[in-house]
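Incident log, support desk, overnight shift.

02:14 A customer reports that sequence design results differ from what the structure should imply. Their input is reproduced verbatim below. On-call engineer (initials T.W.) acknowledged and began investigating.
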């Protein structure tokens, strides 16, 4: 059976690519710290030596819209075109082509349906920065096949937070039951407190530092029950109008498991958000 060798969760700030590639004299004051944090984070995946990546993210109304909005969708393609024009224009994101793994995506779809998750699928999915940002930060050589899993964190009615945790647990079970000798890493990206287009968007830190502190504690210690006792669809409006992306972090907590303490925890306060990076090794730290 396949081995789950790493569970990795992070924010997905699309400005990182431009920040890390611009000339030194043009970089913002926070660039050096941010790049150091990302490079240390990258090494946590490199050490795990994965063969394939399951990538959890959320489409930012690029391919999925109100005419057809699945709650949970698995990409089932041989290849995935990546990044959209507005991401190129606003953030300098590059066009990318990512390989798929249809054997693993088919396994997730079949077993997910049998486990009670009515998963949608797409054979023509084009992914955006929720998937390509972690490729750029964690695997910039883009040499591994992926299976994208998209969640709905934007368009109500949304799934309940507990459903994200349940799906995370199911993804782990499905990966570990995959009849393959491959080493799998599950990578997911979400948000801590985040305001987009609102009055708290551009402050010296995220719009709700206390929520960010508690969120990092929940994630890093694997306190799923404590998190679920406080986080609801209604409560997530208070820390910022885009904070429902935190539910993708909750999904990753489900993959890691109740009480699983992250072996790597890193945070960086930027001018309007906290970037956060977590890695767990289910089989123990690689040598």
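02:41 Re-run completed on a clean worker. Output:
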């Amino acid at each position: 059976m396949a081995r789950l060798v790493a569970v990795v969760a992070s924010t997905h700030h699309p400005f990182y690519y431009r920040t890390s590639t611009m000339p030194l004299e043009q970089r913002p004051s926070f660039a050096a710290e941010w790049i150091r944090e990302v490079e240390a984070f990258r090494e946590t995946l490199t050490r795990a030596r994965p063969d394939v990546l399951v990538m959890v993210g959320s489409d930012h109304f690029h391919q999925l819209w109100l005419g057809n909005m699945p709650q949970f969708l698995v990409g089932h393609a041989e290849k995935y075109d990546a990044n959209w024009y507005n991401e190129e224009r606003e953030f300098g994101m590059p066009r990318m082509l990512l390989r798929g793994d249809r054997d693993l995506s088919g396994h997730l779809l079949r077993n997910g349906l049998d486990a009670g998750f009515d998963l949608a699928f797409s054979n023509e999915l084009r992914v955006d920065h929720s998937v390509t940002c972690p490729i750029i930060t964690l695997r910039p050589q883009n040499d591994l096949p992926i299976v994208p899993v998209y969640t709905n964190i934007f368009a109500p009615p949304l799934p309940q937070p507990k459903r994200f945790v349940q799906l995370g647990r199911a993804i782990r079970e499905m990966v570990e039951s995959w009849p393959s000798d491959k080493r799998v890493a599950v990578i997911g990206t979400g948000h801590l407190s985040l305001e987009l287009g609102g009055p708290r968007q551009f402050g010296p830190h995220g719009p709700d530092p206390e929520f960010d502190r508690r969120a990092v504690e929940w994630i890093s210690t694997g306190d799923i029950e404590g998190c679920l006792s406080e986080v609801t669809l209604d409560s997530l409006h208070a820390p910022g109008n885009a904070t429902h992306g935190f539910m993708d972090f909750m999904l990753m907590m489900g993959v890691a498991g109740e009480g699983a303490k992250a072996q790597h925890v890193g945070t960086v306060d930027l001018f309007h958000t906290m970037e956060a990076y977590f890695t767990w090794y289910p089989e123990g730290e690689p040598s």
